[in-house]
Amino acid sequence: MEITLRDEAAIEEKRKDKIPYEHYKSLLKDQDPQNVSKLSTCPYDEATSSFLVTVMGAPYKVTFPQGDVTDSEGHDFDNYKLKTMILRYLINAKGISSTGENIAYRDVSGGNVYFACFEGRCLKRFAFTFNYNIEGLKKAMAFLGAEPQKNGDFSWRFEVINNMFMTAILWLGDDEFPPEAQILFDANFPSAFSAEDMAVMGDIFIPILKDLSKK
User: Fold this and answer.
1) What is the pLDDT of residues 156-204, one digit of tens each?
2) In whole angstroms, what is the distance from residue 32 CA to residue 112 CA?
3) Domains of the chain listed by start with CATH number
4) Helical segments of the chain, H only
């Protein structure tokens, strides 16, 4: 079977994404699982030595001390960006509850440095992905149990990962103006994720919303 340049690029991207995943696996083993569970609000099952983490409504298992991230049935998958985010959350969560107050990305320490990345991978990507698929977006948000908000033309607040909420706002485009989006974070978000983490959050939640919009 012939491997195309696109296939090779995808394989190389997976290889690069796997490197940080392996790194954070090695860091998790040094943590106290009970403390991790308390600070992250992710249940820890001593019988199976695993955490249960919920991302966008879907459960994932993380073995301890190995740090292997699988689906809820224990099956492996190759979304290393998602796996890495889960491990970083378990390692970095500080037990700060959701506040219900929103902050913009530029309000986060380092937000100005990574804003161009955030704009491209989160704001523009969200706007252009769903500008012509509003019904699909509504279906996805309903599946998540997201709370409708009053900002923009459409907006919802939803839980990304245990105790961490995000608000996605969309202004529809037309023949004269392109669509626009804003992503706001609960004020507790920076307690677990850095500005660099938050800049690539679109790589996590947008593909999941796209999949949910098709169900």
Assistant:
1) 999 999 999 999 999 999 889 999 999 999 999 999 999 999 999 999 9
2) 34
3) 5-92 (no CATH), 102-213 (3.30.310)
4) 5-28, 33-40, 80-92, 115-118, 125-130, 134-144, 195-199, 202-213
